[in-house]
Design brief:
heterotrimer; A alpha/beta (about 350); B alpha/beta (about 325); C mainly alpha (about 325); A: about 350 residues; alpha/beta; about 20% strand
Chain lengths: ~350, ~325, ~325
């Protein structure tokens, strides 16, 4: 498998009245052809900013890409002109945003909106564009595509609108689909439908998907590989099984433990294990590990030295000193995944 | 029902929308909440769960029906008694940002109820606020600050402290954690559980996240389009859900485990929630129900106790649909 | 592993009580303070504010800086261009233009402020009652509907018509203009106040206050009013120049203040006949002052609006 998207040492800052907020502080990851990568993290961790940098969607006035490179199919994306980016966005990279209502034009019929994107990037005839639009609506599971074609966004439910957005993103058979919190605004039963659709697209069309989410449940449903972000850095990345079964970073342990587990027939109540405190203010990020202040296993070194990613398998790495060979007894914690030793 | 703190009796809440149309947000719901329990109310957006919560607590006037609190009909109390009753039922809101006045300091926000009921003054008032701040895991130095200086989780703690200030017995928590990050959600849920023990509270916990509701609730009611579909203790609801909607809802919860996620069989619901302005006839769930029968179109299923302490409104468990009972073993 | 001792220290677990979990690092700042900071950073807004201060000061002391009264006629010294004795020159009756200009500023500012204050009071009362009653049962909706119908009717009447009608019963002058402007002016404010209250009433903190038993009066004073005061102030900074301009216009067409009282409008009117004779100062000073005042209010109002907009935080 070849690398479709390669992000190296990406750093992004925002200007505010008080000074500079370092939202993304050196992010490396890649996406291979046909795989689903999930970037998971909490609000303010920099996951959406990362996606926006790739798509060239950062607000120009207040943000600045300090360093890094983003290569897509061998082509550098940072520094592309707006026009070049526009062209790429329609044809090779598709975008699905969190709120379908703001991404759709409320005064235009659904069909015309999809048709317009197709028209922009192909030289199909009118009737072919129409057929393709109907085909796309059908592909994303919209019943009665001929009828929906003539409807306006407000006539559709949230789930249907999200499907329309996916259809638009798919209109020119992109190689990569970037989905920024695609199910956050939806109810669980609708969320399940959309996640199924995304998986189906990946299998049937071989599209690579980069999904950005805060929900570990969503990650487990769709992802093959996972990058966990915290305070502007990727603290752990690996195959989905590795992340869920042998996590190596205390933040990942914390995330997994703070979700209530349910097993049929198990009735005794367990107390939830939250991560105490809140993430650091990236206005003045700590010198060492950003998670140290909330970490039960913090060591002296964590306070002033940021750990580099430490490889624990071919695909799995974590930015945590506990994985360093010099950390005594740490192996026990790590092996136990942060459960009681 | 002598141990019931809140009895909801055939409560309806309709909103007028346009000419001669009404939105039946809550349509003829009856249940009770026991003293000292946490009652979970789940449903998707548009199910009417928040409206029901606000109606119970008195922020909405019910269109019809009664809410009996501690044996007293809330419609028939007046004067000081009404104020007192109003004080003992409090609310925690969904959006910790929108529920705190941005122009007020935390001190005055928390003391709002104390002032309104003239409970404490001067130094005593101040001390009480400090004590409340500590109770919710903050400290006295936070009293001087403004809401926008806090993180989401901290703001929700302030909202909780404000509700606690008037010493309520019953708190309606309307999606108190859905706007918060996962790691913070657990902090707030733990805090609420601790406070329940310490203060002897009763909760109505409204949420769409079934996992958290299961964790915190003793009993759970499932709402769909303004109706209660099923109600039982939380273990039974998860172990043997009776209503097809509950079954689908449970199977749609994403599991944070890739193996389980790929192995389990999901019940996929077709389509979307119908409009609450013109809900389907008969059973409101029938348009999406995998087991819909002819009878579901014509007759509204009766709210009945299918098993001990396990209430459900579904024709699969009534005489009309009795012959298909074996279908439920899904 | 070269220095095992050092590593021993480095990899020793730390005492977590060292970290203050819920501590807030950034300094405390109220929204008012934040607004002030933003205004102070906006150079154009500060320029506007500075001009307004200067105009106000000169309106107060300006006429006293010269030994002439605004109405003193001196036929031997008429139509003089600006010079060391008459800084802004004199008019065709030999009256000092400097004294007249700043006396005119008093008239303009008085009318602007009076109209704004009356608008504010009427707007707050009517808009406030209307907004607060809306949605409170059948009676509340009726009150709201009644008040809003009145507002709509008044909104449709042009103020010029009101002035002309008023002139039937009143003498033209300062108060006639103020009353005429107020009759039609307050409805705009009432609409804004009502809209704000309707919006703020839906905020969860108002629901929380209601649930906590906070009385209506306090809900209005502590929750509704402080959160709409910003928008009201911004609106006032646009009402005042409108009123000033309306006065100048009315005086210019002869429906405003009457001689010998000076206002920028009457001065501009007086200058009309002589503009072709090269007496540029007759039109320039009143015209310039009107424009400058409009400009100052507008840039300051814009700055305020930006500063009060929470969207422009970052």
């Amino acid at each position: 498998m070849s690398r479709l998207l390669d992000v190296n040492d990406l750093r992004v800052s925002f200007k505010t009245y008080g000074g500079e907020v370092k939202a993304v502080r050196g992010v490396d990851f890649h996406i291979q052809q046909g795989e689903v990568l999930a970037i998971v993290g909490e609000s303010g961790c920099g996951k959406s900013v990362t996606a926006q940098s790739i798509m060239g969607l950062l607000p120009k006035k207040v943000s600045r890409i300090k360093s890094g490179s983003v290569t897509f199919n061998g082509k550098e994306l940072l520094g592309l002109s707006k026009k070049q980016m526009q062209k790429l966005k329609g044809s090779e990279i598709g975008l699905i945003s969190q709120d379908p209502m703001t991404s759709l034009n409320p005064t235009m019929r659904i069909g015309s909106q999809i048709a317009e994107t197709i028209k922009k990037h192909t030289n199909y005839s009118r009737s072919k564009i129409h057929d393709r639009t109907i085909e796309l609506l059908d592909l994303v599971g919209i019943p009665n595509p001929e009828k929906r074609y003539r409807q306006y966004p407000h006539e559709l439910s949230g789930g249907m609108r999200q499907r329309v957005l996916i259809a638009m993103a798919l209109s020119c058979e992109p190689k990569l689909l970037i989905a920024d919190e695609p199910t956050t605004a939806l109810d669980v039963t609708i969320q399940a439908q959309i996640l199924d659709l995304l998986k189906d697209i990946q299998v049937r069309l071989g599209t690579s998907i980069m999904i950005i989410t805060h929900d570990l449940g969503v990650v487990a449903e769709v992802a093959q590989r996972v990058a966990v972000m915290y305070a502007g850095v990727i603290v752990e990345s690996g195959d989905v099984e590795e992340i869920f079964e042998t996590p190596k970073h205390p933040y990942t342990w914390g995330l997994l433990k703070s979700v209530p587990r349910y097993e049929k027939g198990k009735h005794e109540k367990e107390r939830l294990v939250p991560i105490e405190g809140s993430p650091p203010d990236l206005f003045a990020p700590p010198a060492g590990c950003p998670f140290a202040a909330r970490c039960d296993y913090a060591m002296e070194i964590c306070i002033d030295q940021m750990p580099d990613p430490i490889k624990t398998s071919e695909t799995h790495q974590a930015r945590c000193w506990l994985n360093d060979t010099r950390a005594p007894n740490a192996n026990d914690f790590v092996a136990a995944g942060g459960n009681d030793v | 029902m002598s141990d019931a703190l809140v009895e909801v009796q055939q409560v309806k809440k309709y909103f007028n929308v346009g000419k001669n149309q009404s939105l039946k947000a809550v349509d003829d719901i009856s249940f009770f909440i026991k003293k000292g329990e946490t009652f979970g109310l789940v449903g998707e957006s548009g199910s009417g769960k928040s409206t029901l919560g606000r109606t119970i607590v008195g922020l909405h006037q019910a269109t019809d029906g009664r809410i009996v609190y501690n044996g007293r009909d809330t419609n028939h109390v007046k004067g000081k008694e009404a104020r007192d009753l109003n004080r003992t039922m409090q609310m925690i809101f969904q959006d910790p940002e929108a529920s705190l006045n941005p122009r007020m300091r935390v001190m005055d926000i928390i003391a709002e109820g104390i002032d309104a009921h003239d409970l404490l003054k001067g130094k005593k008032r101040k001390e009480r606020v400090f004590q409340l701040l500590e109770k919710v895991g903050l400290s006295a130095e936070h009293a001087k600050r403004y809401p926008h200086e806090f993180s989401g989780g901290q703001r929700q703690r302030i909202g909780i402290a404000r509700a606690l200030a008037v010493e309520p017995d019953f708190i309606v928590a309307d999606e108190p954690i859905s706007a918060l990050d996962v790691s913070i959600q657990a902090q707030i849920v733990n805090l609420m559980e601790d406070l329940k023990e310490e203060e002897g509270l009763t909760y109505l916990f409204i949420a769409h996240d079934l996992g958290m509701v299961k964790h915190i609730s003793d009993r759970i009611g499932v709402m769909y389009l303004g109706n209660l579909m099923e109600l039982t203790d939380s273990d039974s609801l998860f172990d043997e859900p009776l209503h097809p909607y509950t079954q689908a809802l449970l199977s749609a919860i994403p599991v944070p485990n890739p193996k389980e996620a790929s192995e389990r069989e999901r019940i996929m619901l077709e389509g979307d929630l119908p409009s609450p302005i013109s809900p389907p006839s008969g059973c409101r769930f029938r348009t999406r129900c995998p087991h819909a029968m002819d009878v579901c179109r014509e007759i509204v299923p009766e709210w009945r106790e299918a098993k001990e302490n396990h209430w459900v409104a579904c024709h699969l468990y009534t005489n009309e649909g009795g012959e298909t009972n074996e279908k439920t073993d899904l | 592993m070269a220095e095992p001792k050092k590593d021993d220290v480095l990899f020793r677990p730390v005492d977590r009580s060292r970290f203050q979990q819920e501590k807030i690092v950034r300094p405390s700042m109220s929204q008012w303070k934040e607004t002030t900071v933003k205004i102070l950073r906006n150079k154009l807004a500060i320029l506007g504010l500075g001009l307004l201060v200067i105009i106000t000061i000169l309106a107060i002391i300006g006429p006293h800086l010269v030994p002439f009264n605004y109405s003193d006629q001196n036929l031997s010294g008429k139509n003089l261009p600006p010079g060391p004795e008459h800084w802004f020159g004199t008019d065709s009756l030999g009256r000092d233009m400097w004294a007249r200009t700043w006396y005119g500023a008093r008239i303009s500012l008085t009318i602007g402020l009076a109209a704004a204050v009356i608008d504010l009071i009427l707007g707050l009362i009517v808009g406030g009652i209307s907004g607060y009653m809306a949605g409170r049962g059948k009676f509340g909706d009726k009150v709201d509907g009644f008040l809003m119908r009145i507002v709509e009717i008044l909104y449709g009447i042009p103020y010029l018509l009101v002035v002309i009608l008023l002139l039937v019963v009143m003498k033209p002058g300062l108060w006639t203009i103020i009353i005429a402007l107020s009759i039609t002016g307050w409805v705009g404010m009432a609409r804004i106040v009502r809209g704000q209250i309707l919006q703020l009433k839906e905020q969860e903190y108002v629901a929380a206050a209601e649930k906590l038993g906070t009385p209506h009066r306090k809900i209005i004073m502590r929750h509704l009013f402080p959160n709409m005061i910003g928008i009201i102030i911004v609106n006032l900074t646009f009402t005042i120049p409108q009123a000033i301009f309306a006065e100048s216009f009315l005086s210019f067409i002869g429906l405003g203040v009457q001689a010998p009282i000076a206002s920028w409008g009457t001065m501009a009117n007086d200058a009309l006949g002589v503009i072709l004779t090269g007496q540029w100062w007759r039109l320039f000073f009143p015209g310039f002052m009107i424009s400058l005042t409009m400009f100052a209010f507008n840039v300051f109002g814009d700055g305020l609006q930006d500063a009060l907009d929470p969207q422009s935080k970052e």
